[in-house]
Amino acid sequence: MIGWDEGGYIQLDFHQPEYRRHLALQAQAIMQTGVFDGIMLDGWSDDEDRLELVKAIRESIGEKALVLPNAQLGIQLTPVTTVPCVRDRG
Fold first, then answer.
1. Section 31-36 average pLDDT
2. Mean of the per-residue pLDDT values for the chain?
3. Over 18-80, what HEC string results?
4. How confident is the model at residue 80 (pLDDT cuts 50, 70, 90)?
5. What gap in Å lies between CA 27 and CA 30, rounded to an integer?
6. Residue 17 to residues 13, 63, 87: CA-CA distances in angstroms?
7. What is the tens place of the pLDDT at every residue in 39-70?
């Protein structure tokens, strides 16, 4: 997907289920190294595809790993539907 016009970059396409599964497996591989405490999801906003992504990531990395969604100003300040998938459940 094309990102911002002035940025000259490409965004991740969360609409594709296969790509969401790929990202969840990448997150799992990163966590299995033991080097990181969690992952950050930048430019986050709540929509159905991103919710499916964060659910897949949570399932693949387990309950103890951190998931930090960074909701950008002007997008959505509080990712309400994402909260149950990222908050500390301990």
1. 95
2. 80
3. HHHHHHHHHHHHHHHCCCCCEEEEEEECCCHHHHHHHHHHHHHHCCCCEEEEEECCCCCCCCH
4. low
5. 5
6. 9, 22, 23
7. 998 878 778 888 899 999 999 999 999 998 88
Domain segments of the chain as ranges? 38-90
Distance CA(51)–CA(14), nearest Å, equals: 10
The letter for the amino acid at 72 is: Q
Give the residue carrying structure tokens 């998931």: 67
Alpha-carbon distance 75 to 44, whole Å? 8
Q: CB under 8 Å to 26, separation ≥6 — which residues? A: none
Location of structure tokens 């387990």: 62
Q: Which residues pair with 38 in a beta bridge?
A: 66
